[in-house]
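tool=predict chain=A
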Amino acid sequence: MVVTTIALFYNFVITMNHLSKSDCVEVGYIQKPHGLKGEVILAFEQEFEETFDELELLLIDIDGGLVPFAIETESLRIRNDQSAICKLNFIDTVTQAKEIVGCKVYVFEDEVIESQDQGVASVLIGMIAFDAKFGEIGMIQRVDDFSGNLVITVNNPRAEIMIPLSDNVITAIDELKREIHLECPNGLIEIYLE
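tool=predict ok
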């Protein structure tokens, strides 16, 4: 495998034999290539978002062994609370990136940063969304963070409705009843229900 051969030239060759999965935590997997220069999309559990903010090295499970790959300086970009784009050293083409698609990603256990808060997504997912004009519109299935802009996806019997959240849109949140009340901009919900 080309990727394994490339990794052998890496500075961590000596430590590769000593890397044990018992000292590591599985945090996600390589989802797919991104672009033409070997970047990849990493999918990870939301609880590891803060961990990915600080990472310099990923351990990728290739053929049952952990192979260390340095993340190129300033190349890690968080897309949302469950995925990131990054460029790994020695992965320079789409072909090389495709070779590691589906591989599990690990980090050293002591590099995991515990999330300090419950996270907006975990609070909102499963809540019933109500609009001032339409009443109950459905249950929140997903929360995405697009460069700091939260967007909820509401499962309505007629369509999936995506609603950008802001202080102007949210009128009330009742965590006990698991409800969020919104005043959506005119025409937003209609676009999805036509």
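Residues 170 and 182 are 5 Å apart (CA to CA). The longest strand covers residues 135-146.
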